[in-house]
Design a protein that fits this description.
The structure is a single chain. The protein has ten helices and no strands. The protein has helices spanning 2-15, 18-29, 36-47, 60-82, 87-94, 100-111, 113-128, 132-137, 145-153, 158-188. It is globular, with a radius of gyration of 20 Å.
């Protein structure tokens, strides 16, 4: 969800005029200045009303909170990745009167696959250890591993805390290694080239 949300912002930031580019990136990075608890309170305040959408009290609140917290990292990574895509290739596709979606799907996205993988990995690792917004946005009767770790830590069960901590570290390392291997295989085998 974060990558799908951030890709258009990164594309707009990279393809905009230089005067506008800075403002788009500033807008994307603005949520880094907001503490996690404030984001959690804001989302609760926004969705805890009868507006016809059953979002409050579901895990979708966690997804929205994580997206608000960690999307700036994905925007910066994807904007840097977009610099590698040659504008002339996009302009050449315009000669065939291809739509914007076709241009993105055929030219831009295949060249940005490594950036997608890196942005996804970094946001995944940050979401894996997020606690501030999770405390406020967690649906009743469920909890994340990080929240469980936080709760057990206060009861003095050090062996369970150690096991959960190692599980989180192992999960993050496994995902990072898988993504690194996929990126290397994709580059060598030209899976993601145009």
């Amino acid at each position: 969800f974060i990558i799908a949300l951030c890709f258009p912002m990164a594309y707009a930031a990279e393809r905009a005029k230089p005067a506008i580019r800075g403002w788009v990136l500033l807008l994307a990075l603005l949520t880094l200045a907001v503490p996690a608890t404030v984001i959690g309170i804001g989302l609760v305040r926004l969705w805890n009303r009868d507006i016809g959408l059953p979002i409050y009290g579901t895990t979708l609140m966690l997804v929205l909170g994580y997206a608000a917290r960690f999307s700036p990292f994905a925007v910066v990574i994807l904007a840097a990745t977009m610099k590698q895509v040659n504008r002339e290739q996009e302009e050449a596709v315009l000669l065939t009167s291809a739509s914007w979606w076709r241009r993105i799907g055929r030219i831009v996205a295949p060249q940005c696959m490594a950036g997608f993988a890196v942005a996804w990995t970094i946001t995944f690792v940050f979401c894996l250890g997020e606690l501030g917004a999770s405390l406020l946005l967690m649906p009743p009767g469920s909890e994340t591993v990080t929240l469980r770790l936080f709760n057990i830590l206060h009861y003095g069960a050090h062996d369970v805390v150690s096991a959960l901590s190692l599980t989180l570290v192992a999960c993050g390392l496994i995902v990072c290694c898988i993504v690194i291997v996929l990126v290397q295989v994709g580059r060598r085998g030209r899976l993601w080239s145009v």
